[in-house]
Amino acid sequence: MDSDFDAAVLHALFTQPPIGLHVLDPELRIVRFNSAAPGVQGLDMSDAVGRTWRELGFAADDVESMLRTVLETGEAVTDFQYRGRPAVLGGMERVLSISAFRLQDAEQRTLGVAGTVVDITVPDRVERRLKLLHRAGEQLGSSLDVFRTAQELADVAVGELADVVSVVVLDAVLHGEAPCPGPLVDPVTVRQAGFRAVEAITVDSTMYEVGEVRMIPRGTPFAQALSDLRPRLVRHLRANDPWLIRHPADAERVREAGVHSLIAVPLAARGVVLGMVTFYRGPGSPPFDDDDLGVAATVVARAALCVDNARRYTRERTIARLTQRALVPDRLPSYTAAETAYTFLPVASSGVWYDVIPLSGARTAFVAGDVSGHGLPTVTTMGRLRTAVSALAAMDLQADELLQHLHDLTGQLAREHVPAENSDQSELTATCLFVIWDPVTRTCTLSRAGHPAPVVALPDGSIHVIDVPAGPNLGRGVASYRSTSVNLPEGSILTLYNAELLQDTDQDQLPAFRDAFSTPMGLTGRLQDMCDTLMTSLLPDNPADDAVLLLARTRSLGPDQVASWTLPHEPESAAAARRLVAGQLTDWDLDDLTFSTELIASELVTNTVRYSTGPAQLRLINDRTLICEVSDNSNATPHLRYAEDDDEGGRGLYLVAHLAQHWGVRRAGRGKTIWTEQALP
C-alpha cells in the first residue's frame, strides 16, 4: 500500500505541477525531470538525463556555483533569478526563477539536489516596464529647461528600453514659441537636444552634439511619424530598406553603429509637435516589439508634457524680459546736477529697476529698487512701482515721505494678487533706495526701504558706505522710514546697486569697491567704463538674479548761476523783487525773460506777504531753464483756481501758471517753496 502510494505521489509530482522540476545527482547531472512543466516548455530535453544544466546551455557560472553551495551546506535557495539566452531555446532571452534544496536519505547521506525552474520572463518584463515608467515620472521634468529635460529622457530610457536614444526638438520650441498645430508635412529642421548610448554601441558623437542642427528628410520613418503623429516601429533594419537606399548617410550610420531595430515617436503635447524621439537597439539586444512601442510612446508622452512646460516657461520668461526692458529706461537723461551711467544685467526676469528723475530746483533723484519674485507678474509690479515713484517724486515729497506712500501702495498691490482667504499671507515685497542730490547746496538726502545702502567714492580717493537708517521692506511691517542728509564735494561718485552684487553692506565689502575704483582711470575717467569695470568686479560667478549698478558723479552750480535774496515781510518787497530780478537777468543776458519773471516774482512774494508771517527767500537759478523760487515759513499750500469775472483777486497764481513752463510747491521741514520754470530763449 505504501509503495503504491509513494509511486503515485512521485508520478504526480513529475507530471502535474506547473513548474519545471529537476533532480540532480551529487555531480549535478540530471537524474529525472518534468518535461511537461510550462517553466521549461520549448527546451530540448530528449537527451537531458545524465547531463548538467551547463551542458544544456541555460545555466551560467553563478547558477552552477549556487547549486554546489546548496549541495555542500544544505541551505536551500529560493527565487534565484537567471537572465540569459539558453541555446536550447534558440537564443531567446528568458528570465528563469530557480529554487534548489539538498536531497538526503534517512541516514542523512547526500543524494543530490532538487531544483525547480519557473519561467518569469513575461512578469519580469512587465515589472521592468512599470519601474521604467515610474522612474520616468520621478526624473523627467526636474527643471524648466528644454535641453535638460531632453537629456533626462535619454538617460532614463537607455539601458532599460533601448541601447541608443536620440531626442531632437524644433527650433521654435527653444524660443518658447508654439509650432503650428497638427502634423508636419514639409522637411523639418530640428536641433539635437539630448542623446545617450550604451558603451557597447559605437556612434559618431559629432552627429549628436547638443545644439547640432539637421534636417529630417521625407520618406524616412521619422518623417512619417511627424506627418501623422503616429509612432513607427521598425523591427528589423536592413541595408536594402528603401528609405536607407535613398539616404546613404543614414544607412552608413546604421551600419557603423550596428543597430538593427528602431522606434520613432513624435514628441507632441497639447496638440503641438515639439520634436522627435528615436530609440535604437544594437548587437546583443532583441528587436523591438509592440509592447516596447507602447512603453516608448508612454515615456515620450510624459516627457512631451515636461518639454512643453519648459517651452511655455521659456515663452513667459521671454515676454517678461521684453516687458522688463520696456519698463526700465534704456538710456539715462543728462542733467546738470550729475553725470550718470548704469549697467543692467537681466538674468532671471526679476523686479529690479533703476531711475534718474529730475526734480525742482535743479535737483536730481537717483532710484534703485527690487521687487521680490520672478516672472511677468513681478515685472509688471515693478513697472507700477517705478511709475508710482516718478509720480510721487513729481509732487516734491521728502525722501522718507515718498517711501511711506510707496509702502502703502506695495501693500495694496500685494492684497490684489493674493486670494481673499490668504490675504494675510502675502509674499509680495520690494526694496527701494531714494537719493536726492541738490547741486546748489551740495547736499545729498537719502532714505531706504530694505535696500543696500549706497557707497560713495570721494574725490580724495576715500570710499565709504553712507550710513542710511534701514527701514522695513516695502509692503512688510509698519512704515517707518527716516532720511539722512550728507554734504558731498563736487566730483563724488554715488554707487547704487541691488543685493545680487553684494549680499550685505558692511565695511568688509569696501575692499571690493576700492579695488574696482583703483583702476588706471581712477575716479575721473569715463563713467560708463568705470561702471562696467565695477560690475565685472562685483558680479558673482553664477548670478541667480538680475543685477544693476547705477553710478552718479555729482556736479554743482557755481555762484554765477545762482542768485538769492532775503526780503522783509512788507508790501514793498514785491517791488524790490521786481528790481532784483530785472538786474540779475540783465547780468545773465536774459532780458527777454525780464517781464514774465518780474511778474512771477512779484505775485509769489505778494502771496508770501499776505499768507505768511516771516521774511521771504527769493532765488533765481540759471540752469537749463530759468528757475524762480520763493520760500516762506507758512505750511499753507496754494491751489490754482479760476476767478470769476467780478472777483477782485485770485488771479495771481493763474497768471503764474500761464507764464511758467512748469510750477509747483515743495515742502520743507518748516515752511514751503513755490517754484517756477521758464524755458531759456
Quick tags:
681 residues, alpha+beta, 33% helix
**What is the percent of helical residues?**
25-40%
Shape: elongated
Query: How much strand?
Result: 25-35%
Distance between the first and last residues' Cα:
135 Å
Count of helical regions: 17
Mean pLDDT: 82
Largest sheet: 6 strands, antiparallel
- Provide the spatial order of strands within the biggest beta sheet: 8-7-6-11-10-9
Q: State Rg.
A: 42 Å
* Strand count: 27
Overall SS class = alpha+beta
Which residues sit in consecutive blocks of at least 5 with pLDDT less than 50?
Answer: 87-91, 419-425
Concise overview:
This protein is of the alpha+beta class and 681 residues long. The protein contains 17 helices and 27 strands.
Give the SSE layout.
Elements: H1 2-15, E1 20-24, E2 30-33, H2 53-56, H3 61-73, E3 77-84, E4 94-104, E5 110-119, H4 121-139, H5 146-157, E6 164-170, H6 171-174, E7 188-197, E8 213-216, H7 221-228, E9 232-234, H8 242-246, H9 248-257, E10 261-269, E11 272-281, H10 290-327, E12 338-345, E13 350-358, E14 364-374, H11 376-394, H12 399-416, E15 430-438, E16 443-449, E17 455-457, E18 463-465, E19 470-471, E20 484-487, E21 493-497, H13 510-517, H14 527-538, E22 547-554, E23 562-567, H15 573-587, H16 594-611, E24 616-622, E25 625-632, H17 652-659, E26 662-667, E27 672-679
Parallel strand pairs: 16-19
Antiparallel strand pairs: 1-2, 1-5, 3-4, 4-5, 6-7, 6-11, 7-8, 9-10, 10-11, 12-22, 13-14, 14-15, 15-16, 16-20, 17-18, 17-21, 21-22, 23-24, 24-25, 25-27, 26-27
